[in-house]
Amino acid sequence: MSAEATNPEAHPEARPELRRRGRTRLDLRRLGRAALLGPTSRDRLPDAIGHVAEAHRAHHPDADLSILRRAYLLAETSHRGQMRKSGEPYITHPLAVTLILAELGAETTTLTASLLHDTVEDTDVTLDQVRTEFGDEVCFIVDGVTKVEKIDYGAAAEPETFRKMLVATGNDVRVMSIKLADRLHNMRTLGVMRPEKQARIAKVTRDVLIPLAERLGVQALKTELEDLVFAILHPEEYESTRALIAGERDPLPAIADSVRAVLRDAGIAAEVQVRPRHFVSVHRIARTRGELRGSDFGRILVLVGENADCYGVLGELHTCFTPVISEFKDFIATPKFNLYQSLHTAVATPEGYVAEVIVRTRQMHRVAEAGVVALGNPYATATADTAATATADTAATATADTAATATADAATDPDEERVDPTRPGWLSRLLDWQQSAPDPDTFWTVLRAELAQDREITVFRDDGSATGTISLPAGASCIDAAYAQHGEAAHGCIGARVNGRLTSLSSPLSDGDTVQLLLAQDASSGPAAEWLDHARTPAARIAISSWLESHPDRAMAPTSAARAPLSVVGARGGGANAVADLPGASVRLAGCCTPVPPDAVAGFLVRGGAVTVHRIHCAAVAQMRAVGRTSVAVHWRATADCRVTLLAESFGRPHLLADLTEAIAREGVEVVSATVEPPVEQRVRHTYTLQLPDAAGLPALMRAMRDVPGVYDVRRA
Prior knowledge:
Layout: H1 28-37, H2 50-59, H3 66-79, H4 92-104, H5 108-115, H6 119-122, H7 127-134, H8 136-144, H9 150-153, H10 157-171, H11 174-188, H12 195-215, H13 219-233, H14 235-246, H15 252-265, E1 271-276, H16 279-289, E2 298-304, H17 307-320, E3 322-323, E4 329-330, E5 343-348, E6 354-361, H18 362-370, H19 386-395, H20 400-412, H21 425-434, H22 440-451, E7 456-462, E8 467-473, H23 478-486, E9 493-498, E10 501-503, E11 514-519, H24 538-550, H25 552-556, E12 578-580, E13 587-589, E14 601-605, E15 611-615, H26 619-626, E16 631-632, E17 634-636, E18 642-651, H27 656-666, E19 670-676, E20 683-692, H28 698-706, E21 711-716
Parallel strand pairs: 2-6, 7-11, 13-15
Antiparallel strand pairs: 1-2, 3-5, 4-5, 5-6, 7-8, 9-10, 9-11, 12-17, 14-15, 14-16, 18-20, 18-21, 19-20
């Protein structure tokens, strides 16, 4: 996996200066010598992984390091004689990858697999040997990060390797953690490769690995990968950004001192840090704002002990400084889809600086930096690895129930496929649609498009028998929700209710919407070609495209004939029991809103001296007032009869018109006129103008019409 690696000193421009403070830098030549010399004693860890053990013990003081010793010895022995292109012994690469993960707090199993991650791919070690020596978990992870053979897949080797890793990640998220650390070390040491190869690797990192790091919440890896890619793909912009940072006059340390004083006076125990922005972040702000302020080069981070302290800090800051309300975001109450939690705000100081402030607990900070790596071993049983389990429970409160269920399932039935409690909606969607991707090129193209969606929404489904949630990318439509919930059965979807209101399938969804999807009873129905214009998820687009390809006659035919303009018959004739306070004026009930007693109404004088009556909330009321129509007071007569126009939406089926007419007649209502439009996508619209003996009976009439089988909506015109 590290064939492209090289000496980091060869190309300093590929090493941004904004490294995270406190991160250990490796001396590869010293490590290489230590790796070749091996341990000085059988009873101690080899000198070459002493720094890994130290970083690991900082997060897991009681960890058993003996398995790391055995893994290192197998890796060093199997890689002995192999050299990196920069001249260091090959073992320095798995050591560096393992150190990256150890600093993030990865547990022992992840580090063991990291040390061995290239052995099966690049040496004679087999998966069976790894399983025998280190168990099924380590073997599964090592297999997940092992590339497929180019001799078998040719040009499709890279997309098929990623497909394999993503499927493995669906069962064990630690697979992708190792891949991200592996890519980070290779990007750090990419300097002596040919420029075109550097660019190719950087583009794949930008399009696939960085979005995956963001979605898994591993910000510590994501930000450094962004800077390394920035330096390779945009060297001129990188240099100008570096010059901006070098010439900054940073007011943030003084602002941080003021924040410390405020919190100290308030009795809130907190750690206040200045967090420099990485290169890409500064570049983005410069493009957005133009001229940068001194406080734009970093942010103030406040770390506290408890969730409640976060809001206490926020209150003090907003009291003692001037808050910029538009910059406030509460990611504690509503965490991001990648487990991120913090309070974000910005405050203005008396000197005129505006400083962004992030407030979080120390545990939130660990999760914000390390993401899923901070969850420890999500598959640990209740009796094993207690510390890691406690960490996972604290770090992912929202997934605690799922984790408990998955743990229980794994304990009771070890042969069942594991369900990762950290698997978010985007990963589940990705694993679903990749099975339908017809070829590696389609998979690779769609994967990049899917990962480019950087926000998620959650909608609630309500199908009458169950209520649950569906995770979708921002901008998704009802079509995407249909395929996410029903799979290929969504081919027969003919409409949806969003928050109780009937809407078209093309309607975009917002976070928190409730969606009820309406399916046709005709199994032969299929999607329209226009659906592709509104589908955002790969699963929906692949399913629709496959159906259209298998039904070319349906794909070429017009699938949604234009509706004829809705004609309301009889509603404009006579004022029924409406009376205008204008002697001699004729009264007409408006066809656009068909008011009935006891609706609040408004009257307007129109041509010919007639008064037209609208419901008070009708859109035409505002238009009448805007054009200066004379307003006339209107009231209802004491008589209760009225005329109203109703629209009924239904599935197409035989005898539907007869059944609806019978239901209307049973309510004692006269049908003045009825119009039935031709079916469109198995939906039929009926328009009825009805004479009611009593306006109070209108709700009962509408309920009776809705009770007719196949009718899913009845409403006033």
